[in-house]
Amino acid sequence: MNLQEFFHQSPVFLAPMAGITDAPFRHLVCSFGASAVVSEMVSSEALVRNSKKTQRRLLTADALKIVQIVGASPQNMAESARINEAMGADLLDINMGCPARKIVSNASGAALMKNEDLAVEIAASVVGAVKIPVTVKMRLGWDAEHINCFSLAKKLENIGVKMLTIHCRTRNQMYSGQADWSAISELQDIVKIPYLCNGDIKTPQDAVKSMKLSGAAGLMIGRATLGKPWLLRQIMDFIQGQKITPSPSLEEQFNIVMQHFYDTLNFYGELHGIRVFRKHFCWYSNGLGGASRFRETINRSDDISFIKDRVRKLYENSLAEKL
């Protein structure tokens, strides 16, 4: 796989989001024309132990199969990489940016920003274990006093990492404040491999501005797609100078939501699928009339027919308000 060529086709990636970018959601985003989506973060230790839950997070028939792995053991990360490659992954991404306490307490995710030697050792073990490209997602640094994405980026390039994604906040910022896209512009002069800008990119206009300020070759977008799985297509259109694909009508959105819902039920089973999908109902209903009452009602029901009826009425009432 030639990443340089890929960037001429689709410079916008769906970011990995734990509990969100599962197979049904990735498939839906791809159905709108996105060709780069990343799996949920997969624990290398759990995968090596043959965790069924972890295996469910892996591959589907997405256009480009990208799996993100996380861990603090070079040996387990290498073995996890080999397992994913054998299962058909096209690209492996190493998580060095997750700020969650559960992850950093295990010396993985963003905690690796505090231990460059271990970060490089892990990346080298993964690169050496597989033939497919290896990429890394990280943050600016651990905190404002320790911005080390530049030194780490160069070391990662030197050991064979093919692409970087930088979330333009420190770990200590978590998701607060505004991502500083210009903070990574120096990378243009430090590394030759492509890098993606990530953080607070919500609109096509944001996308163009973030690429200009960051000097990035592409983007990785996560939370802005919640309730709007068609957003990546619109951003790709705008970046490529094409007419932006219009957002689906309310009638079309109803069908999209229900297809996503049924795909989730088929993937997880009915009861678990309903509970998994409740957060998606919240995101899809955001901005629609009666959304608050809808969410209260839907979160108390495990009846598929009742849920479908409530969703239909939500969209019918919203459509009537527009007429």
What does this structure look like?
By secondary structure, this protein is an alpha/beta fold. It folds into two domains: 3-239, Aldolase class I (TIM Barrel, Alpha-Beta Barrel); 250-322, Putative flavin oxidoreducatase, domain 2 (Non-ribosomal Peptide Synthetase Peptidyl Carrier Protein, Chain A, Orthogonal Bundle), CATH 1.10.1200. Helix content is 45%, strand content 13%. The protein has 14 helices and eight strands. The chain has helices at 3-6, 23-31, 44-48, 52-55, 74-86, 101-104, 116-129, 149-158, 204-214, 231-239, 250-268, 270-285, 291-298, 304-322, and strands at residues 12-14, 37-43, 65-70, 91-96, 134-139, 163-167, 195-198, 218-221. An eight-stranded parallel sheet has the order 1-8-7-6-5-4-3-2. Helix 2 (23-31) runs antiparallel to helix 11. The mean pLDDT is 91.
